Amino acid sequence: MTDVSFAEQLEGWLGEIGGFVWGPFFLIPLLLGTGLFLTIRLGGLQFRKMGVALRHGLLDRNDEGGAGDITQYQALTTALAATVGVGNIVGVATAISIGGPGALFWMWITGLLGMASKYTEAFLGVRFRTTDKAGLINGGPQRYLQEGIKGGLGVFLAWFFTIAAIIASFGIGNMTQANAVSAGLHDTFGVDPWISGIIMFVLVGAVLLGGIQTIGKVTSAFVPLMIVIYLVGGFIVLVTHAGQIPDAIGLIFTDAFTGTAATGGFVGAGILIALQMGVARGIFSNESGMGSAAIAAAAAKTTHPVRQGLVSMTQTFIDTIIVVTMTGLVIVTTGVWDQGEEAAGTMTAAAFSAGLGSQWGGTIVSMSVVFFAFSTILGWSYYGERNAERALGDWASLPYRMIFTCVVFLGATTELSLAWTFSDLANGLMALPNLIGLIILSGLVARETKAYLAFDPSLRARPEDVEKFLIDTKNPWRTSA
Question: Which residues cross the membrane (predicted)?
């Protein structure tokens, strides 16, 4: 009884701390403010270069002649694997069920501004990456915060991020995702959570043994497929409810600035709640500003940090502007959004069932949760491993993979109310030092970005030309990679 009481108390304390961290007066203005500041400082880069970035990341796929462990496309899909997850399905439903349809608008704003943050952290991940004793590339906030910001502040921010990232990798990147997989398989096919846990233990362990190269190959193979299947299902729902789309879009925009009145099971929400839920769940979904995607970006084969930064930027566009939008529109157009917070877990399935029938709709959503969550586990395993190596040394790689794989089984077979609360807090604590670092290092990023894009505006320069450009501009990046 004492243990249960202590666990409940701990969850309450963590919830209060997390509520402040993710509240309207701390992390939310810092996230939006940083994204807006970087958007202005980079001259609206995410709008000017989105077409070039999508072409380079999805069509060119590989930066020939660039150093790295995986291709740019594999780095993109690894980052997508870690971000396109439960937040795109349940997270969107939760935001709307609490904040109303207007929350989706603020998720869009978070995504659009977050693209500048994602570009900046990916640029820095490549710019300050190093090679470990095994010959593998290592980079991310745990590196660029210390290398880019000299003195005690840089060391403090880097260690702050490292510890928070390791904790988050076992929470939001492991236990909560494994639990979502086992719950989805149990609800859809009646699979016992222990069986799901054993299967995931074997599959995750097999992939992690191969390191980032295997993770990159696996995610590049099935992440695009799972996203396409989910989007096709959502598109069919929207086609069957085409008449409701104009009213749904109008509701999203008006409620973002007026709040939402109580209706059905929805208790009503003001503008501040819509803003808070939209930003919090938006960052939970796309991770822009958290610094996590910079770890995958650092491993990419690229001839210049700008090129990988632009590719990584498209991940936020795909996650939020495409996948999150599909989920949100399906929920609002089918009219299930007003069922109340208690229905958030099944809201997306109900919306898909309204357009596809109860059997197909529920199955597509359940299986999407399973695959999205499983891919998130793979992406976050790499993030956590790199930070464990940063904290303990290169020897920590194998022990971390073994512990991480065991925790997958634990997450699949236990209740995780406390883990969810702790994970939300760890996510916020990851973002804090990274956002401070992005602001401090924004001058370097803006200066080198402007210089490179003046030289290669369409990202078609040959490796030898990029090398000559780096030499002519006395850029030290190649010697540090």
Answer: 20-40, 153-173, 193-210, 222-242, 248-275, 317-337, 357-383, 403-422, 428-446
Q: Per the structure block, which two tokens stand in for 331?
A: 């929920």
In a domain, 374, yes or no: yes
* Rounded Cα gap, residues 244 and 330, in angstroms: 10
Q: Is the pLDDT of residue 481 over 60?
A: no
Number of structural domains the chain divides into: 1
Torsions phi, psi of 397, nearest 5?
-60, -55
Output b/e per residue, 239-274; b: 16+ Cβ within 10 A.
eebeebeeebbebbeebbeebbeeeeebeebebebb
Residue (of 308, 285, 310) closest to 298 by Cα position? 308
Q: pLDDT band at 184, cuts 50/70/90? A: confident
Q: Please, which residues have CB within 8 angstroms of residue 456's CB and are 6 or more apart in sequence?
A: 304, 306, 465, 466, 469
Q: What is the pTM of this model?
A: 0.91
Tell me, what's the pLDDT at 322?
92
Task: Quick: pLDDT tens for 350-381.
Answer: 899 888 877 788 888 888 888 888 888 988 99
Q: Assign 260 to helix, strand or coil.
A: strand
Say which amino acid occupies 406: C
* Percent with pLDDT over 90 in the chain: 46
**Tokens linked to 287:** 């991770």
Question: What's 256's domain CATH number?
Answer: 1.20.1740.10
Q: How far apart are CA 408 and CA 181, in angstroms?
A: 10
What is the pLDDT confidence band of residue 343, given thresholds at 50, 70 and 90? confident
Q: DSSP secondary structure string, 142-211?
A: HHHHHHHS-SHHHHHHHHHHHHHHHHHHHIIIIIHHHHHHHHHHHHHH---HHHHHHHHHHHHHHHHHTH
DSSP letter assigned to residue 100: -
Q: Give me 43's structure tokens.
A: 């001259």
Does residue 214 sit in helix, strand or coil?
helix
Contacts of residue 172, defined as CB under 8 A and 6 or more positions apart, other chains included, come to 380, 423, 424, 426, 427
Label residues 205-216 b or e (16+ Cβ within 10 Å = b): bebbeebbeebb
Check if the beta carbon of residue 404 is closer than 8 Å to that of residue 381: yes
Which pLDDT tens digit goes with each residue over 286-339?
Answer: 888 889 889 988 988 888 999 999 999 999 999 999 999 999 999 999 999 998
Contact 18, 424 (CB under 8 A): yes
Please identify which residue in the block is written with the tokens 């916020």: 428
The span from the CA of 311 to the CA of 54, in Å, is: 7
3-state DSSP call for residue 10? helix
Q: Give yes or no for a contact between 18 and 428, defined as CB atoms under 8 angstroms apart.
A: yes
Quick one: tokens of 184?
A: 């989805």
Q: Tell whether 7 is covered by a domain.
A: no
Q: Is the Cβ–Cβ distance between 109 and 278 less than 8 Å? A: yes
